[in-house]
Amino acid sequence: MKSLVVSNGEINDLNQLKSISKEMDFIIAVDGGAKYILKSDIQPDLVVGDLDSIDKDILKEIKEKNIPILKYPSHKDYTDTELALKYLIDKGFKEIVLMGVIGSRIDHTLANIFLLSELLNQGVKGIIINEKNTMHIIDDEMEIKKEDGVFISVLPINSDGAKVTLKGFEYETDRVDFNFSSTLGVSNRIIEEKGYIKVENGICLIIESRD
Predict the structure, then answer these.
(1) Are 166 and 116 in contact (CB under 8 A)?
(2) Domain final position from 112, 131, 150
């Protein structure tokens, strides 16, 4: 089962949100992220959060539509986004797309990206999407279809780095050591029909960036 989590960061392409929502079995609005969902004429299955960033009119509309709300106290150990993910993991969802998790708050942005690692640990495929980027965290292998104007970055996020193999890319590697904090894996391009990435002995953030 696939789920969409929409948080209160930046979403500048509501058409993209609407398109992705059609592929989902379950949609969660995280607190103020409800505004993006309702503006897109999407009916969420659940609203999660402490409701500290949700507009009063949006909250009124949610209640009028009898959309379930899972409310948490404002003083808690987890962010609203992580609480939404915990809910979905408990319900057995195996693929989760996150939108609205990138924004001006760098602390929240980084925390949300790192949540992909927790999903990986739980055996759940997690993807962050906005109008310019798609992000995954992997510890094995994946293929990416070639798209014009798309750059691929492979960034180790564990302190020991990783051995990375890249095939079908402008810059190919064969079990090359990618060190943590190194920029070696930034801004590569796929030059064949597909690009193949294999990560060994580590965990890598894979970013597909569009100009």
Answers:
(1) no
(2) 131
Model pTM score: 0.95
**Whether the predicted pLDDT of 80 surpasses 90:** yes
Does the pLDDT of residue 147 top 90, yes or no? yes
**CATH number, domain at 125?**
3.40.50.10240
Sign of CA dihedral 48, 54, 130, 78: negative
Q: Are residues 146 and 127 in the same domain?
A: no
CA 199 to chain centre: 19
Which candidate, 113, 169, 115, 163, places its Cα nearest to that of 141?
163
What sign results for the dihedral spanned by CA atoms 26, 31, 34, 36? Answer: negative
99 plus 174 within the same structural domain: no
Q: Is the pLDDT of residue 211 over 90?
A: no
Question: Does 73 share its domain with 142?
Answer: no
Structure tokens at 20: 């992705």
Residue 180 has, within 13 A of its CA and on its CB side, a CA count of 8
pLDDT for residue 203 = 98
